[in-house]
Amino acid sequence: MNKRKIINDPVYGFISISSDLLYDLVDHPYFQRLRRIKQLGLADVVYPGALHTRFHHALGAMHLMSQALKVLQEKGHSISESEFEAAQAAILLHDLGHGPFSHVLESVLLQHVAHESITLVMMKALNRQMDGRLDLAIQMFEGTYPRKFFHQMVSSQLDMDRMDYLNRDSFYTGVIEGSIGADRLIKMLDVSDDQLVVEEKGLLSIENFLHARRLMYWQVYLHKTLLSAQAMLTQILQRARELSESGTTLFATPDFARFLHNNFSLEDFDIHQDLLESFNGLDDNDVWASVKGWRTHPDPVLSTLCTMLLNRKLFKISFYDSPPDEALLADLRSQLTASGIAKEQTDYFLVKGETTNWAYAKELDPIRVKMKNGALLDIADASDIPTIKALTKIVRKYYVCWAKNVSLRG
Amino acid sequence: MNKRKIINDPVYGFISISSDLLYDLVDHPYFQRLRRIKQLGLADVVYPGALHTRFHHALGAMHLMSQALKVLQEKGHSISESEFEAAQAAILLHDLGHGPFSHVLESVLLQHVAHESITLVMMKALNRQMDGRLDLAIQMFEGTYPRKFFHQMVSSQLDMDRMDYLNRDSFYTGVIEGSIGADRLIKMLDVSDDQLVVEEKGLLSIENFLHARRLMYWQVYLHKTLLSAQAMLTQILQRARELSESGTTLFATPDFARFLHNNFSLEDFDIHQDLLESFNGLDDNDVWASVKGWRTHPDPVLSTLCTMLLNRKLFKISFYDSPPDEALLADLRSQLTASGIAKEQTDYFLVKGETTNWAYAKELDPIRVKMKNGALLDIADASDIPTIKALTKIVRKYYVCWAKNVSLRG
Amino acid sequence: MNKRKIINDPVYGFISISSDLLYDLVDHPYFQRLRRIKQLGLADVVYPGALHTRFHHALGAMHLMSQALKVLQEKGHSISESEFEAAQAAILLHDLGHGPFSHVLESVLLQHVAHESITLVMMKALNRQMDGRLDLAIQMFEGTYPRKFFHQMVSSQLDMDRMDYLNRDSFYTGVIEGSIGADRLIKMLDVSDDQLVVEEKGLLSIENFLHARRLMYWQVYLHKTLLSAQAMLTQILQRARELSESGTTLFATPDFARFLHNNFSLEDFDIHQDLLESFNGLDDNDVWASVKGWRTHPDPVLSTLCTMLLNRKLFKISFYDSPPDEALLADLRSQLTASGIAKEQTDYFLVKGETTNWAYAKELDPIRVKMKNGALLDIADASDIPTIKALTKIVRKYYVCWAKNVSLRG
Amino acid sequence: MNKRKIINDPVYGFISISSDLLYDLVDHPYFQRLRRIKQLGLADVVYPGALHTRFHHALGAMHLMSQALKVLQEKGHSISESEFEAAQAAILLHDLGHGPFSHVLESVLLQHVAHESITLVMMKALNRQMDGRLDLAIQMFEGTYPRKFFHQMVSSQLDMDRMDYLNRDSFYTGVIEGSIGADRLIKMLDVSDDQLVVEEKGLLSIENFLHARRLMYWQVYLHKTLLSAQAMLTQILQRARELSESGTTLFATPDFARFLHNNFSLEDFDIHQDLLESFNGLDDNDVWASVKGWRTHPDPVLSTLCTMLLNRKLFKISFYDSPPDEALLADLRSQLTASGIAKEQTDYFLVKGETTNWAYAKELDPIRVKMKNGALLDIADASDIPTIKALTKIVRKYYVCWAKNVSLRG
To answer: Looking at the record's lineage, which domain of life comes first (chains A, B, C, D) (predicted)?
Structure first.
């Protein structure tokens, strides 16, 4: 049987699955689950087109990986067939451990387990099922493979992950100003001393990439309305967990119920052999089905929040340059109690948060530019333009969101 | 409060909500529900980008409506503000009555109620809530408004519904050959004797539109793999309903359970005041959450089918020019029993069907061309090209799909 | 020196020049001349964006060639490095012999020499300068290389030439309905018995390709206004040549003057060693500079026609299904004489012509489909859709164009 | 006769000509001439797709103007029909005075006349021919019309001119990172105290616009290879003029010859009634036809430079942060004389220049942001991001270009 396959992609036209191993990975239930997890979680409350999944993103990142590796080969770098395939496998699987509405879920239901850790657990499980065919991919993913640039293409400030997600998120949201010109960026990649570098003539493209990334953060990932919806979903899950812990019966799919009733650690994935399967049973549908099931729940906090989220009656949200002072919060709390919300429950309807936008993390993980004279420079030093240096600063904003004009159900 | 709003759309750039009424309609829970119903149902098993919703489609169709009405105004046809708004409202709401995976659902859970009927029930309910502000829109939707072209723009072979869905489906699937050039089509529209017509110089555009539509049918809507997945979901719901009727307990969201346990008629929507609310509680998430919940159900037929669909182990499917003969089916049935499937259960794993592609339904609803000399001709007569006439033929295909290499769970 | 190069292309993103030979060809004055010859001649009188050159088209066709060859390699067909390069060179050079406004020019100034013949003369001249490095490319171009599919990719009904020009012309005119989905078409190519074939699952794509091509003919290549402008330019050159032959002095660039004063045959290119250089000196600028220079020429026919074309006062044009009868022409001629045009000069202002659109030339050069059962079928037989057969008919139209409301200069 | 017209545009889809006046302007020989003047002059030496004309740009800017005016109307600003038309006319005509290869030509042949002055001369001439129908448009163009925002939409740092040219240049070069999201920008425009302002929520869009503009400068308008080609064309015209002044016969179209032999001032356009017609006779074809005619001229400087430019053998070019020192130049000059170039002629083959990129000219012409609280702020003050302030600095670069490995003709 011929396992080669071509998949339509509105972003790149076509994506080729170019080996049996890659085909088997895509075909595996662990990967198929990603079809049911949206890349941008709740972002469609703002951008109704932003419904693309982690499945499509992972395929897209694999596509860019193969483009980039071909560019490196054309520039004379030797890359073996098994390295080529392993790098594609590593990027294909890099998001395997994401749950639905990842950041929300991690902050409530899986507080002690980072999604990267679950990704690794799943990759290792796959590797066992596949008799070690993922050994090399796992080394690249973890960064233990000696040729560092493979890891950097999987995970760094210039990796195929963010190239695809910026590209794809810009495309599906319709925020075309976020377009990064991935084609050109990839043509500018090179390798020097086993490190991923950018040719000097790619300087402008990198600058544009960093600007576009910063714009996408403010315009999409940290959009006020999205933050508000995320805060609401967090409160919903928080309340559901508390009710569940206090013995109240709650509608939930079996797998989702398991996570709602427990507080698992990473070690639990070793101890309970079937926990990984339960995790693999989770996706966006569990969350939405639960929110819908709970909208008529007797608990007025839970049912009110669920009804609001479903009907897109979102919390009002304001941004501040410094942490909001207590007087402001007290005022909002008294508005809430005036609406009939019990004092001890105002925190379900009033959320503080902070958010940061760090366009270029120079120290952590520099982007290296290979100058025409052969020197390697950090991008912020290679550019004679003050804007790049400006991007190395972290921009932090504080926000408060709360239920204006709420009327409790029940 | 300013209710004007602009919504990002990867297809058209931006969509404007241009009046308070339209804003209130979009904001209503009936319309917000469409955010959770994918336009193309299961089509993402073939085209992973095809995740756009009926919400976005309805907004897009409203956008095209406003473009088309402006063109008619520029050509000298008087259209009042209230007609303009009503036509936008009518197209905005035209798909309100769709359930999740509409055709699948209608064939099992709502066998006696067409989605168009529910649309009208919902529009009338909205109209009551809005004190008659939808009177005109409902007349246009039903076709009772004297100026027929408004109805034809909402529902005909050249309506804004199909212009948007062809455009949008082509965009999100990545099947760019299906692009119809909606911009140009719309510029070619005109009105003659209160009928919607096309200018003669738009002949080529219409031909292209009909060809593109036909291509989209074969390439997308009737794609083999999609038909197979739909057949599987139908069998799953069928089995679930039977189990439910025979008293077996089944996981389901409350609203979904109500439809699973009953067989409602259109009259029931009058009798049970809350049935419409239950219907409005249904969306794609119920179906997927149920399929996931059922994949470990004790019934091996149900759990096997659910596991297969979730992991994309789809039925094999073959097309035939005539109905498949009994010998073929008998052979497939014996393959199934050889796999351990009980004789009386083979029909869950073997589905026959037929499908038709009718590119241009000349008799039912002709597309009229206004020739330069003023005459109105049917497009098939206006064109000197034999291909248009060829498109008036119905192409019918038969298919059989079955579970190859199935192994029953449990 | 590194001769690898990447060229920006709005249509495909980037085009790579992937070998020294290809670089040297692109760099050669014969190829650089194509920068100054528009692909669509006068089409910008209708589509102002259609200014792309034969230079860009040739690069685009080379790009598609490399894409297609990679697809064939992935399907297991062995293609050597020198075959790969030669096929790219052959398609790169396939239009070298085009003069400015090719069909117009050929009909007046180079009546006895087809542009394909000059292409071959230039390829052979290049080959001599390059010590035989083009031997293989020339065999592929001429069709003498034993593996026929290379020639078919350069010149057939499914060649890279038309894939690029349809793609590119659709893009630059803005006639997006003409988009052919070249990506998918190319993925469907295969080779069987050294013939280029299409996989059965590409059937719909081919049908769409043929429809799109037919649409582009009517909408662009045979657009009434373009035919009218071409007729005017033909009359201008005809008049200029006659004046020149009768000894009248005419402004012209030196190279253009040489062709205006002579009537060369293909043999002349052998006899006059410098004729090829003169030909290589010709481009669109000569024609426009002359038309501008002649708009104040004492000859009223010449100056009137030139002024009209420059200011886009074009002939009126009508299409007919059969040759226009003499009464009609007589009537138009009398209108012209009534405007002050001498009887013997009416033919400069009244042009008859005919034009044909043959979407699929089945007999001449069939498109072969490789069915799943291995059989090779002609596309018109493989398709069960009557429209393809319809496309094998030649559609012929007749036209008359004439100067309505002309007022002679001088 | 219906003068309404729709023109295809790959950038915006369609452009409507929406009034008789606008139709007559587009139809006028002054405007039709712009069909033959490329927007980006020689830029196709780098970006072969960049062949779009000032004709198409002017139409595109008119299209954006109508979009923007409609946005202002929807926001409640009253704009009369004649203001609407006048603003469209003003932007349509704003580039009328450009000659071919404008900056090159102005630096040699029309040293004393800015293209803006000629635009005004032509607008006034048109106004006379049209009986004052352009009075209002001319006021808007000149900035004397009391409602300042009309002038600002025609000419300011946020005018429709640069929105279209950035959009269009990005599109046709294929430098997609330069995309500015004109649609969104335009939706963010507003008017406050008769000044053009941007809504606060458009802040990110403006930042992106300024970054994109800066990128387009470095990547396109000031691309090294383009500067080199421009330097060569300047030297060619310089030499041609000197030869012409010294009595040498030179091939040239009549109109071009007139400008080559004279050094006109703005006043000459008043004195010589026919000078404007001669100017209107100039376009890109004159320059290219001359360069081609001169490539065999007896003067070795002229013929060498022309041959080099035609065959794309361009000067080598280097950038410097400070003016290049004399030692460097002396070294290059001695290389040139070693190649056989006479000492007094080295300056034809060695060009110094400087170039600046000023992304945001805050002082000259601020972009005003209307904050939610109603205050008007300069964009650099409204943004809390240091990058905007960085863009107010002028970046200046120096360059030297020279003929490496030149061999003189003749």
So the answer is: Bacteria
